[in-house]
Every structure is written in structure tokens, then in C-alpha cells.
Protein: UPF0597 protein SAMN02744040_00514
Amino acid sequence: MKKVIIDMLKEEVKPALGCTEPVAVALACSKAKELLNDEIVECNIFVSPNVYKNGMCVGIPGTNRLGLKIAASMGLIGGKSELGLKVLEALKEEDVKLAEEFMDKNIVKISPVNTKEKVYVEVNLRGKKNSSKAVIMIKHDNFVHLEKNDEILLNGEISLDAEYVHVDSPIANITIKELIEEIENMNLSDLEFLLEGIKMNEEIANVALENKIGIGVGYGIKKAIEDGIFSDDLINKAMMLTAAASDARMSGINMPVMSSNGSGNHGLTAILPIAAYNLKYPQNEERLAKALAISHAVTAYIKNYTGRLSAVCGCGVAASTGSAAAITWLMGGNYEQIEGSIENMIANLSGMICDGAKAGCALKLASAASAAVQSAIIAKYNCVVPPLNGIVGNEVEESIKNLGKISSEGMTITDEVIIKVMDSMNNN
Structure:
């Protein structure tokens, strides 16, 4: 199980440049263009409703334009697929200008497809002599199909018509207590790679604290602290750092963040409240690395049931819960108190909807970070929501499964309505 957890953390905690849904589109586009090796005449892209929703209004690093079409154009013009989720990192200023010009030619066509699969991106290119196809599915950087001139180069299973099938990850077969015990028994050398996430995510947060970017949620909290309206306490510092990083990232600042479970904003929420705790109450590297591991692992545990993308805000229901568990652990909480902080989070933010990636996410991340610290602190004093309280079950694992049912089964219609509302506004 130790190896399973470490392998999972290395797979799920990785740098990402830009919002991961448009980045997935850019990645698929870059791969399809590399296969095409020709001048593009037609570009038809099909994406799952959740990718469509999350990419609609978000900033893209390197350009002032928003959304999937510019991300796709940038992937086609200058993206390098070998960079994975940092596919846009290689673009120079002149590449971005060419991508904007290419977008204006209206060659790129993007349509949502009717599928229960959360992450699906299909890019079909036709050139003057060649054609190509690239498909990403399940995870944002997971290619399942590659094709050039009708020659299949990679052929994985694709089923868009099937109902969403839940497949347990290996860590879902143990309890939260067992998961944390495994991490506690690890060495610093096993988890040291996670520490880079604090440095990376603090750096992008500091950019938005020095300058008002996007809505300026983090910047506004910082000013309120300086003016004495807010106190310089743990909750407000966690809110400030997490919101500021989201302000910068959602505005398209050209800096990578450490993601968690396929989402940059999840990474900000899973990491920065812990970074705030470390700034207020400095920890040694081993304790800090283990806290980060707990946060990412609990986030993964919850995402196993809620799904990769959904109608509920993953930062609010998953990554912030990971943070709450880790902060409770850092404060010396026992296993019951750690489980209690998770129960408190499920009782609190389970209804926060996801209406796509955009500037307003900074407000949700501020709420998520605040709730994480609050839930951890009151759990430390044994103030925990009782069993059978709403969707809270008899055991923490039951509560997480209940949250998953609400998210993956109960909110399907809600997600469809959210997308229709956003689509109607963007088409007006």
C-alpha cells in the first residue's frame, strides 16, 4: 500500500500551466498537429460537457483571450505534446500572436458531445494531404486514441454512449485512518517531491498579492488585513493565499501551479492552506511533506467517488477537505478528530456548484480555504457534526460515498442546466 500511495501521489500531483480543461484541449491539438505534419485546412474538436463548461470563460496563459478556441489554436501553433500539462510552456510571444490570428480564421470548431464521461477531448484535423486524430479520455493527459491517414497508432477503449462507470482506485479499499497511518510511516525521502508544490503555488499567489489581478480577492483580503479590518490570523492568511493564487491562475498568468487530481485549482486548495499554517506555525520538512501527502491523498479518496469533474466544486468538496484533514493532523489531532474535520466539511460545503473555471473561482477558493481551517480548528476541540446528520453517515467513509452519490448521480441534471445557462449567455 505504501508503494500504491506514493505512485498515486506522483501520478496525481504534477505541475500544470493554465486551467487543465483548456490545457487538455491544447495538448490533444498539439499531438494531432504533430501527427498531421501538414497545413491545417479543417479542425473539428469534440469535448465532454464538463470540459466545455470549465473551458468556456477561463484565462489562458500568454494571451488576453479566454476559452477553448484560443487554447486549441495555441496548441496547434506552438504546443509541444511531450510537455504534457505544461504543453503551452514552449510558446513564445510571436507564437501566441500567430495563434490569435489562426483563431480569427474560424477554422477551429468546438462542440460538446452527449456523454457521461467527464474528461473527453477529440481533435480531428484535415490538411491538404494528410489527416489526423487524437483523443484524450478519463484523465487530462491520458491519450487513448491516435490516428494518421486512417492508420491507427494507438487504439484504446472509447465508449461515449455507456453510462458513467465508477471504478475504485486502489486507495478506496482502505479507510481514511489506514490511509493516514500509511503516510505517517513513510520517510521524508518518499514524499520530499511534494514540497515543490508549496514553493510553486506560493510564487503565483505572491504575484496577485503584489498587484490586483482578476477580481483581486486575495489582494482585497491583504488590504483589509493591512487596514486592520481583518485580523492577520490563520483563516484569513489561508483565504488570502489561496484566493490570490486563483486570481492569478484564472486570469491566465503565465506561471505553472502544482495541480492535484487533474486540477490546478485543486492543487491550490490542497496546498496553500497548509502553506499558510506553515507560515504561522513553522514545521520541519518531514511533517510538512506528510501533511501535503495527507491532503492530496484525501482529495484523491473523495474524487474517487465524486468523479474527475462534476456539478459540484471539487475545490469546495474535495481539495479543501484534504486540507482540513492535513491541518487537523498538523495541529496534533487524533484520527477521530481528523475524521471529524472531514465530516464537518461534508456537512458544510457539499452544495457548492461548479459553474466553470473563471475569475470568480477565487471567491470559491477563499470560502473553501476558510472552511477548511475552520473545520480543522473546531474538530481539534472535538466539535464535530454528529452521525446521520443530513448526508453525513455513521462512518467517514460512508459520508464520502454519500457525497459521491450526490455529486455523480444526483447532480447530473443540475450540471446540464448550469451548462445550458452559461451557453445561452455566451451565445447572446
Summary: The chain has a mean pLDDT of 93.
